[in-house]
Amino acid sequence: MIKRYQPGPRMSAAVAHNGVLYVAGQVADDEKGSIEQQTQEVLAAIDAILAEAGTEKAKILSINVYLASVGDFAAMNSVYDQWVDKANPPARATVEARLATPNYKVEMTAIVAL
Q: pLDDT truncated to tens, each residue of the chain (114 aa)?
């Protein structure tokens, strides 16, 4: 069975299949916010999707972080490190990428066990 969360005309916020939740790229609501603020908003969006799907941070298998500027790596990590489940850290990759709009500083995707 496939279950789609917050489906829209172009994509769903997440899709569940065979006990795995695939979280689409999450970006901040406030495009003008600092990297720290945008990171907090992205992580809050992921938390909300996990709650809606009935899962939690401890079950995140992997997370991909896309930064508009790799120079924001330390600042993003200052927020991420406070959020991540330290007893169950996921696999993670961080890359510099051109994001959908010039004001986005960070985007994240996740794969999560249900």
A: 999 999 999 999 999 999 999 999 999 999 999 999 999 999 999 999 999 999 999 999 999 999 999 999 999 999 999 999 999 999 999 999 999 999 999 999 999 999
Q: What is the 3-state secondary structure (H, E, C) of the chain?
A: CEEEEEECCCCEEEEEECCEEEEEEECCCCCCCCHHHHHHHHHHHHHHHHHHHCCCHHHEEEEEEEECCHHHHHHHHHHHHHHCCCCCCCEEEEEECCCCCCCCCEEEEEEEEC
> How is residue 21 written in tokens?
């939740």
Handedness of CA 65, 84, 13, 26 (dihedral sign): negative
Q: Return all residues near 95 (Cβ < 8 A) that are at least 6 apart.
A: 64, 65, 66, 67
**pTM assigned to the model:** 0.96
